[in-house]
Design goal:
The chain has 66 residues and is mainly alpha-helical. It has 3 helices and no strands. The mean pLDDT is 90.
């Protein structure tokens, strides 16, 4: 539960954006089938940008970040 609270906070939002950017960059750098990694990286990137935590509703927390 503390993980979800962290991910809903401002530092967690930054961590989601950075993780998404890293996944997208690695996927593009490796190319080929690794481009799928870039598509997967868009999920945490957009979740961070839109300030939503996709795991929060599973733990009974609000969908929107703090």
């Amino acid at each position: 539960m503390s993980f979800v609270k962290f991910m809903s906070s401002r530092p967690g939002r930054l961590a989601r954006v950075l993780a998404g950017l890293v996944l997208v960059a690695v996927g593009f750098a490796l190319g080929g089938g690794w481009l799928t990694l870039s598509v997967i990286g868009l999920i945490p990137l957009f979740a961070g940008v839109l300030n939503v935590c996709l795991l929060a509703p599973l733990m009974g927390q609000p969908f929107n970040g703090q």
